[in-house]
Amino acid sequence: MRSLETAEENARRLSGKPLLVLPHPEQCTIRKEHHQACPQCQVMYCSMECRQAALEQYHRVLCLGPSKDDPKHPLNKLQEAWRGMHYPPETSSIMLLARMVATIKQAKDKGWWQNLFSQFCSRTANEDEEIAHKLLGDKFKGQLELLRGLFSAALYDDRVSKWFTPEGFRALFALVGTNGQGVGTSSLSQWVHGCDALDLRAQERDQLDGFIDQLYKDIEKETGEFLNCEGSGLYILQSCCNHSCMPNAETSFPNNNFLLHLTAVADIEPGEEICISYLDCCQRERSRHSRQKILRENYLFTCSCPKCLDQADDPDLTSEDEDEDDDEIDAEGETEEAELEDEMTDV
Length: 347
Fold this sequence. Notes:
Blueprint: H1 7-15, E1 36-37, E2 44-45, H2 48-62, H3 74-85, H4 92-106, H5 110-118, E3 125-126, E4 131-132, H6 141-155, H7 166-179, E5 181-185, H8 187-196, H9 202-222, E6 229-233, H10 236-239, E7 242-243, E8 249-252, E9 261-264, E10 275-276, H11 281-284, H12 288-299, H13 306-310, H14 320-332, H15 336-344
Parallel strand pairs: 7-10
Antiparallel strand pairs: 1-2, 3-4, 5-6, 8-9
């Protein structure tokens, strides 16, 4: 996945400044002359190779043709419903489910793809520990049933009919919720990295650094923290990595595309298990009780990594920031739909 915006277009949108001009435009890695649109629905791809790969794998099924902007088309209704449930609004997660179905519908060897998808964990509950995924309980039953109805209207196929049953859709939802890897790309960050590597005189360096610092301040004020072009993907090997609150490896996308890199962050001995963290940096700094709560609700297990074992005698108290969040929710009296929007941020 690559950004379709140039660094300047990206900066203009995020900062709310339509006339902004970035210095050193040669440091932008996006080449719009390589972009290719689907001739039927005008969906844009970063290259002819990308468009052809999509066409051969799933796009024949998902191409909306002249109905691309029709709000009554089942696929558009599905995406709009998801936008209303998820914060920040996006469609990559629900469309990952759609692409899974479309890939099987298009494939010559449908069994191969079905076997591949079956390798991902899709448990909706851990019966041994009596843990259920937080998004699959009675509280969100109505929203999930709405999504299932729209999903079925848009994509139903007899060959994967089990995915369209109530329990099958829950399992499919759990598969993406548990295994989906966020993919973030940013043409602006690539431009910044390029600028950082420039050999400039001291005065020019100070001016450029000051410009970039101010740009990020303007973006934070206008847009907030969601700066990347976000996508979602399934990675077989990465999904096999277990969690640790003290990981010895981490995932990243250094090439600003869909290629995932798994990099050691500590020495790993021969035979030692490679562990990543399912929590972000801020979540890893929370109390043991808070971390365990997040992992149980999203990944259906109780963590027994060295850090959690070392903190086993700590009080079962949530972190201060989580307590504050809970107080705010209680004070505001959020509705069920607002709670779902908040919970869906993690999917």
